[in-house]
Design goal:
The protein has a single domain (3-105), classed as High potential iron-sulphur protein (High-Potential Iron-Sulfur Protein, Chain A). Helix content is 34%, strand content 5%. It contains three helices and two strands, in the order αααββ. A two-stranded antiparallel sheet has the order 1-2. Strand 1 and strand 2 form a beta hairpin.
Length: 117
């Protein structure tokens, strides 16, 4: 294995770890949000000021990501081409598995971004 492959593996582990931490932290909030969605409260969008959104560097517009703080961001990465985005890339807003019960902008980005396969 060369150094690039090792670093790529480390990045993958870190991404999965951050997703796991967020998923666990959001467990009770997710249940509450899903219950509200069933009552007709859909269309709930992630607020950039939300503590989880801030910790993951979420921005509605990926071009406004703090590149110094979130060095993993690469131009062209958006929620629309992320595995977590649960809508069509053409939808302006769609649910995200990271922000359970909430929608993210297709032009947005956060550090849990994983290339859609």
């Amino acid at each position: 294995m060369n150094e690039d492959q090792i670093n790529a593996g480390r990045r993958g582990v870190l991404k999965l770890g951050s997703i796991a931490v967020v998923t666990i932290a959001m467990g009770s909030q997710a249940a509450h949000s899903l219950a509200q969605d069933k009552k007709g409260g859909g269309g709930n969008r992630v607020d950039e000021k939300d503590p989880t959104a801030q910790s993951l560097g979420y921005k509605h517009d990926a071009t406004k990501v703090d590149k110094a703080k979130f060095a993993s961001y690469q131009p062209g990465q958006t929620c629309a081409n992320c595995q977590q985005f649960q809508g069509k890339a053409t939808e302006a807003w769609a649910p995200c598995t990271i922000f359970a019960g909430k929608e993210v902008a297709n032009k947005g980005w956060c550090s849990a971004w994983v290339k859609k396969t």
